[in-house]
Amino acid sequence: NAGVTQTPKFQVLKTGQSMTLQCAQDMNHEYMSWYRQDPGMGLRLIHYSVGAGITDQGEVPNGYNVSRSTTEDFPLRLLSAAPSQTSVYFCASSYSDRDTDTQYFGPGTRLTVL
Amino acid sequence: GQQLNQSPQSMFIQEGEDVSMNCTSSSIFNTWLWYKQDPGEGPVLLIALYKAGELTSNGRLTAQFGITRKDSFLNISASIPSDVGIYFCAGSISGAGSYQLTFGKGTKLSVIP
Description:
The complex is a heterodimer.
Chain A: E1 4-7, E2 10-13, E3 19-25, E4 31-37, E5 43-51, E6 54-57, E7 64-66, E8 76-78, E9 87-94, E10 104-105, E11 109-113
Parallel strand pairs in A: 2-11
Antiparallel strand pairs in A: 1-3, 3-8, 4-5, 4-9, 5-6, 7-8, 9-10, 9-11
Chain B: E1 4-7, E2 10-14, E3 19-25, E4 31-37, E5 44-49, E6 55-58, E7 61-65, E8 71-76, E9 85-92, E10 101-103, E11 107-112
Parallel strand pairs in B: 2-11
Antiparallel strand pairs in B: 1-3, 3-8, 4-5, 4-9, 6-7, 7-8, 9-10, 9-11
């Protein structure tokens, strides 16, 4: 199993550009989530999904969209990037929303918005 | 929402020393987790605690779930250079359909050989 994979590993955007951060898992996990990590901060939940076709907002959803058309993939979209979205983004997955204590994290995407 | 206060923010220790860090919360949690994050990587779960008063070990790591359910600590004994990284605590409250994790801000550990 590859576990949780994220692409790209690094990305630089200009203000106003759009892009999609990719996340995939091959463990047949129902629950997937996106976090952002800022310097000196813990991880903050952006969006999550409890299964294909179901998504919900986390603590800091503004400026981000998600969709879950398959169990494996959970992309995060930035429609109009802003410097405040410069951060490290982590995708995570677990068997269900009741197993968030054992969720696996991807290696992260380091995003810089100029 | 819930907030976790994790301390210290950073530590510089000599190889072989023991390390202690803790997390406190204004709210009650019924699960406490400790993660380690290596540079350039995602967090990896070290220890999970599910019951107030629980004391759990994983090799040189020992963590405890506080009796009040509002705190937890992590000890690392006989530190080695590969212990370097950022350690995060996280808590969750199961109930009302919510199992979301709240993370502390992390303790950055540096080990001097």
